[in-house]
Amino acid sequence: MLVSSKELLLDAQKNGYAVGAFNTNNLEITHAIIAAAEAQRAPVLVQVSAGAIKYAGIDFLSLIVQTHAHRARVPVAIHLDHGPDFETVMLCLRFGFTSIMRDASKLPFEQNVAEIRKVVEAAHALGVPVEAELGRIAGAEEHVVVSEREKTMTDPDEAAQLVDLSGCDFLAVSIGNAHGFYKGEPDLDFDRLKAIRDKVSVPLVLHGASGIPDHQIRTAVGLGICKINIDTEIRHAFTQSVRQTLAEKPEEIDPRKVLSPSIAAMQAVVERKIELFGSQGKG
Ligand code: G3H
Ligand code: ZN
User: Is 51 near ligand 1, meaning CB less than 6 Å away?
Assistant: First the structure.
């Protein structure tokens, strides 16, 4: 069933687990995410970035996700990931998204607050919760490109102010996490996460979770992370599978036979993450 992300994340917060938020761009990835959620009886967020909208078209992509959500035996939310501007937010609200991230983290603090406030007013009028981000997350995710040098971590006092002033429902934090594959072992700042947790009551979100070792993910969940974003590991499973199939069967011309094995490969990745996040059996 299609649900609001807010009920999912509040339950996660209350019961000490995290809900997986998995990025989709097409039918095969969406199939894999929902099949994994059903196999694990887990709630799940299927998230769509501005890049995914540009690639697939919002009408096609939202229908694919929502058709799946309506049929699913587990709760499914459809979420805008890293919303780049107010227009994209409004488009997603019009197409029935059940949560919205407006990423204004590259703006100065006051402008970030003002942007989120504006989105909160529009989205809350429709009962849709809003995710904000404070601090800059390194790496590249679609249009979001931040160099290592520019990276700044979330300040706990500013985090509390941003939540109070903007009225946002969830907060994405920057604690050493990065989009894309990590160069070397990631080193999350758990003292900072704890300080943020002590000052902020809304569910916290961890972006850039592909490649973070399991023990660090468990610690982050224990310290209040309730939503965990995964994109890169799914992309990797998809493309590795397609490469392997074509290498084994270079004569194959049926796209269905090339793409079908990739669904199982992506499903395996998502199922493993669901178990790691502790959300299995929570749907
Ligand atoms: O918004 C999406 C995520 O933060 C994806 O992170 O590149 O580590 O999979 P990832
Ligand atoms: Zn992200």
Answer: no
